[in-house]
């Protein structure tokens, strides 16, 4: 069963795994060392992330290394982009209000 990428990132452990492998590829054992859970549980999360193509596997000798699939992460970024623009507009408006209030306070 192919899952949606948003189902994959809904789980906090899977988001933590993505953050871990964002900087460097890691083996399942190295990833599991960062969690207070079983290696099997981490493998299950990695399987889901792999199914959603958020991570890719690379065999190096006897080890499998997992790394982030940047192109797939762009789908998440594209979905968030309209919300980011709304937040930025609201923060700009707040900055203008605070600047006006500060200016009025200095005049008094």
Automatic annotation (TrEMBL):
InterPro entries: ArsR-like_HTH, HTH_ArsR_DNA-bd_dom, WH-like_DNA-bd_sf, WH_DNA-bd_sf. Residues 1-88 form the HTH arsR-type domain. This is Transcriptional regulator. Gene3D superfamilies: Winged helix-like DNA-binding domain superfamily/Winged helix DNA-binding domain. It comes from Siphonobacter curvatus. It holds the Pfam family HTH_20. Residues 1-32 form the signal peptide. GO terms for molecular function: DNA-binding transcription factor activity. Keywords: Signal. The keyword Signal applies.
């Amino acid at each position: 069963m192919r899952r949606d990428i948003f189902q994959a990132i809904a789980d906090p452990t899977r988001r933590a795994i993505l953050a871990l492998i964002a900087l460097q590829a890691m083996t399942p054992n190295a990833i599991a060392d960062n969690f207070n859970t079983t290696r099997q549980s981490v493998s299950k999360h990695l399987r889901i992330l792999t199914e959603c193509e958020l991570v890719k596997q690379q065999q190096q000798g006897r080890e499998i290394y997992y790394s982030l699939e940047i192109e797939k992460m762009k789908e998440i970024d594209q979905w968030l982009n309209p919300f980011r623009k709304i937040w930025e507009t609201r923060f700009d408006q707040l900055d203008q209000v605070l600047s006006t209030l500060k200016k009025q306070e200095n005049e008094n």
